[in-house]
Amino acid sequence: xxxxxxxxxxxxxxxxxxxxxxxxxxxxxxxxxxxxxxxxxxxxxxxxxxxxxxxxxxxxxxxxxxxxxxxxxxxxxxxxxxxxxxxxxxxxxxxxxxxxxxxxxxxxxxxxxxxxxxxxxxxxxxxxxxxxxxxxxxxxxxxxxxxxxxxxxxxxxxxxxxxxxxxxxxxxxxxxxxxxxxxxxxxxxxxxxxxxxxxxxxxxxxxxxxxxxxxxxxxxxxxxxxxxxxxxxxxxxxxxxxxxxxxxxxxxxxxxxx
Length: 258
Known about the structure:
Blueprint: H1 5-29, H2 32-47, H3 51-54, H4 57-70, H5 74-85, H6 98-115, H7 117-134, H8 139-154, H9 158-168, H10 176-192, H11 196-209, H12 214-226, H13 230-243, H14 249-255
């Protein structure tokens, strides 16, 4: 089998896909050490691919993703990410698939963050500024930025997270559900670093923007309690009990706080 290049390439490709699946699982649920272990395995499988497959944009994007996880010369990784993006505007344009762009964005956010977190904020602000000229930011890109923010929450990087949320929020204009979820993340983050007054202001803004959202009123009630404003908290819980049928899950939750 090793002497048959076509069979060898097919085996290597199957092993690579299996390794990528394991890596993706590690990024969702595993530790950094687990991610790095899976990244090394993916890179080992990449080396066994035929040269013409290794040259494909998606394979190059995966390679850069693994190098990002390993912290391997991140400035060079960023340069190579831009080189792949430029394929779409080259003399012989190559259309990059949505999956390739998402992997590149995944890598770019984390490479920038590893070099200097402030670079991520500047990058997101640049995307939002460009949105005004080019229309909405691609949905896949939005998804990757949101996943990046959730990952920072999971890692407890709250101080870095707040300005990133603020920078990203305008990108979701007109996307009510996404804006609501992002605002909830912002409120949770503010509370976790002891900025309770700021969290209450954000929660009040949220109920004004989304007056029919049960999540918004719960956030308002909980942040009021965190600020020891029990009168405001009681009003918010009362709003929830009045908005739901007796015995409904959210009614029971609110009644338990009154």
